Amino acid sequence: xxxxxxxxxxxxxxxxxxxxxxxxxxxxxxxxxxxxxxxxxxxxxxxxxxxxxxxxxxxxxxxxxxxxxxxxxxxxxxxxxxxxxxxxxxxxxxxxxxxxxxxxxxxxxxxxxxxxxxxxxxxxxxxxxxxxxxxxxxxxxxxxxxxxxxxxxxxxxxxxxxxxxxxxxxxxxxxxxxxxxxxxxxxxxxxxxxxxxxxxxxxxxxxxxxxxxxxxxxxxxxxxxxxxxxxxxxxxxxxxxxxxxxxxxxxxxxxxxxxxxxxxxxxxxxxxxxxxxxxxxxxxxxxxxxxxxxxxxxxxxxxxxxxxxxxxxxxxxxxxxxxxxxxxxxxx
Length: 332
Ligand code: ATP
Ligand code: MG
What we know:
Layout: E1 4-8, H1 16-33, E2 37-41, H2 43-46, H3 55-71, E3 80-83, H4 89-98, H5 103-107, H6 110-117, H7 124-138, E4 144-146, H8 152-169, E5 177-179, H9 212-221, H10 241-249, H11 252-263, H12 269-295, H13 298-327
Parallel strand pairs: 1-2, 2-3, 4-5
Helix pairs in contact: 3-12, 4-7, 7-8, 9-12, 10-12
Organism: Deinococcus aerolatus
EC number: 6.1.1.2
Protein name: Tryptophan--tRNA ligase
């Protein structure tokens, strides 16, 4: 029997990369594993982004991230869903793991290099991010981690940390595996600059709860195959962002039509984007409607998070007790 864990940062509005890359798998695995699937809004991780140092904004985003997950179909009464800061055991385990992890390994993480490269002053927390992530997963002895492809290296490090702990203190943790949505490994940003990311800001993202009008404005301005200058030029869908999105939102006949017609200049980019917008609308409208309903009852979201934290702590308690004993902390 597997145990599933995954986390999502409250660093901004959830976007379609989060949805297709991770959140949809949370729902599918939640249906399969029930209370054996544990999901977390990782607000401690969000602090590694200096832009998140806004106390009111952090709380609001944590709340909204929970709401968005419920709106896409996660049922908090059937899975375990909570905010990371409500379960302090994550930090305790993280500290122990910090001492099993060479700094050099952390410095080699590509996410660290990418994010640190954009900062003038790099918080030590950003370097420790993958250690805390290993603690998040192993605190529940989870063996299955639904994530986007950008987290592959972090999951490998988690396995390494589990191995090191087991070697040093005796067999304790499983070596968890990542589970991907193979159709949405790394969704590109709508600005055409790399992965869609919350922390890159709204120019990069198509928000799950963003107004359809605003999404259309971004799609209209989005880059397509740069070699296709005129409407009459044949295009190459394989290098087109819009075609990547079609593969997520459109049905098979539409995807095939766009593929063929683009290559023989039978469809222009604007019409192709309009066709995409039909799929976007069909996918996002019900989610947005559900989010609006959930927003009417904020206390229910808070209650669900409080209950989720209780459930998470109950699962974590025996693990942290085992770790304390194995590490050799004095027992009173
Ligand atoms: P940030 O920029 O703050 O790191 P993010 O957009 O990368 O935010 P995270 O909270 O770091 O989102 O990641 C949540 C989950 O979404 C992870 O499993 C991650 O792998 C996945 N994910 C994030 N961006 C994408 C993407 N563009 N394509 C596919 N999966 C993604
Ligand atoms: Mg990220």
